[in-house]
Amino acid sequence: MLSVTAGLSVAQSCVLSLVMFTGASQFALVGIIGAGGVLGAAAGNALLLGARNVAYGFVAAPILAKGRGRRLVLSQLVIDETVAMARAQPDPVSARYAFSATGLAIYVLWNAGTLAGAVIGGEVDPARFGLDAMFPAAFLALLVPQLRQGGAHRAAVVGAVIALVLIPLTPVGVPVLAASLGVLAAGAGRAATGPTDRGTEGWR
Amino acid sequence: MNGTALLLISAGCYLMKAFGPLVLADRSLPPTAARLVGLQAVPVLAALVVIQTVSSGDRLVLDARLPALGVAAVLIWRRAPFLAVVLGAAATAALLRTVW
Predict the structure, then answer these.
(1) Does A160 sit within 8 Å of B42, measured CB to CB?
(2) Are residues B32 and B52 in the same domain?
(3) How far A199 CA lies from chain B's nearest CA (Å)?
(4) Sign of CA dihedral A35, A38, A40, A41
(5) Residue pLDDT, tens place only, B60-72
(6) Per the CB < 8 Å rule, is B45 touching A139?
(7) What angle do CA B70, B73, B77 make, to 5 degrees?
(8) Which of B32, B40, B99 is the best residue to mutate to test the A interface, defined by the most A CB atoms within 10 Å of its own CB?
């Protein structure tokens, strides 16, 4: 629905969910395209958000079934929800099962939802139905569960402030890319020997 | 939107997912690096919340999206499902625009 609002075709929206299948990156991509951002900025943001899946991949690696072919397929299911569900299991066997079951269920529902939303989204006036308000709500819903990580609050605040300051000063898409540097604010607190401009004093 | 670009970005996203399981299955990232990679999405998502709420192109704009985000925040706090959060925000903005 959001992607059609942003000017993608129904088919493009569906392909995006089928092959990209990582919600935050998809929302960022269509959000920035819809706001008139250049493709490079939209792509950069989608990839930045996808980068956390690298960390999830490391967590998932010992859980996934052996065999290169299987791993190639299962890797597509490495997302927030599947890794969280697998982590919550008491033993490796149920973790493997939870990962695959959660992944399949979300993959089917996500793509069915995309098709339905894309068809409906093409029929309505975005502003009148508040569809533009769906983007920030979606990002906030994705952000909140991530805040449990150490240093995350600091990174979030710094990222938000960087974006707010840069909105009127830079082309669309650049503020988000710059905001990604906010992650260094989270790193500064814990890295006892890390080279940071803030020194190594503790914070919380 | 350019279809080739769409597929290339998707391929990039896939490769990042597959990196751990395929390449470094038995090793692990240094703790600091793993932590920063895991946190990477946080400032980006926070920035996207701000931008999608209070900007239109390169201008700062306050409109129905801000109260809609407030409703979304309450719904998230009340542990509402993702779809309810998103639709709640849309309904709030739509309602406010009808009233004004």
Answers:
(1) no
(2) no
(3) 16
(4) negative
(5) 999 999 999 999 9
(6) yes
(7) 145
(8) B40
**Cβ atoms within 10 A of the Cβ of A110, count?**
17
Domain of residue B14, residue span: 1-36
A12 closest CB neighbour out of B6, B76, B93 = B6
pTM recorded for the entire structure: 0.75
Place of tokens 């906010």: A182
Task: State the total domains in chain A.
Answer: 2
Give residues 75 to 94 of B whose Cβ lies within 8 Å of A: 76, 82-83, 85-94
pLDDT in tens, A162-204: 999 999 998 777 888 888 888 888 865 554 333 333 333 332 2
Could you tell me the two tokens for B36? Answer: 């920063």
List pLDDT tens digits, range B73-83. 999 999 999 89
Q: Which amino acid is at A31?
A: G
Task: Work out how many domains chain B is built from and give that number.
Answer: 2
Q: For the complex shown, is ipTM > 0.90?
A: no
